[in-house]
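so my prof wants the structure for this chain in the C-alpha cells format not the other one, which i didnt know existed until like an hour ago. anyway here's the sequence
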Amino acid sequence: MPSALRGVDLVPALLIIQHVAWEEPGLVAELAQSRGFSVDILDMGVVSESRPSKVLDAYDGLVFMGGPMGALDDDAHPALAHERELSLLAISHGIPVLGICLGHQLLATALGSRLISGQAREIGIGSIQLTTDSAELGVGGQQLEVLHWHSDSVTAPVGSEVLAASDTCEVQAFRFKSAIGIQFHIEVSPSVLAHWLREPTMLHDLPDDVSPQDLQGEYERGFAAVAALGSRLINVFLSNVASSFDRTRR
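here's what i got, hopefully its the right format
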C-alpha cells in the first residue's frame, strides 16, 4: 500500500476506497489535498489484498465511497466483507471513518444494522431533514436539498445518533463513535455528475421523467448550497483525521 512505504509520518494520511471508477471522491479528495493531507485512492480489490491491521498502520482516516452493488453482495464482491471488517477495526481504534452511499451502508451493516433492499429509491435532487444539531450538518430542523442515488437503505446502528432523515429513508446520516455515514452524496462536483451521466449503469437508474441534461442543469444551479454542506461535513471529518494523526503519529 503506497502510504505504508512512507517511513516517516509527516502529514495525515487518508485512504479513499473506490468501488467503481465513476464514483470519484470529488470534494473529499480536493479538500484533503488542500489541507496538505497525503491521499491514496485505491480500488476495493487492491485494499482487500492487505490485512486490515496493516491498512490501519498506514492511515489516519478511511473513506468508503459509493457503488452500484449491494452492501452485502459478498459472493459477487468478496472485498465488501473485508471493508466491513476494516471499518469495525478502525472504529475500535478511534480512527475516523466516512462512508458515503454504499459506504454508509457498509458501515451500518458492519455495526449490525439491517439492510433494506430496493425499498427506498431516491434518484436525483431531493430533500433531507436534519433530525438534530450536529457539527457535521448544522442546526436540527432544517430541510436541505441534496443529491440522492440509491434504492437500498439501512436501519440505525444500535448506539448511533441519526443526524438526518427523509420521507423515504429514515437514516440519511448517522454518527457512531469515530464514524460518520451519509446516504446522500456530499462529494459530487458538477464534473463528477457529468461523468456519472455518461455511465450506462447510472443512466439506467434515472426516472423516466428526468433527463440527464435537466438533472445536470438543476444540480449546477444549486451547487453552491450543496458544496457548502459538503465542505462543512468533509472538513469536520478531516479535522478528526488530523486529530487522530496528532494523537498517534507525532
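also thought this was worth mentioning. The two ends are 21 Å apart (CA to CA).
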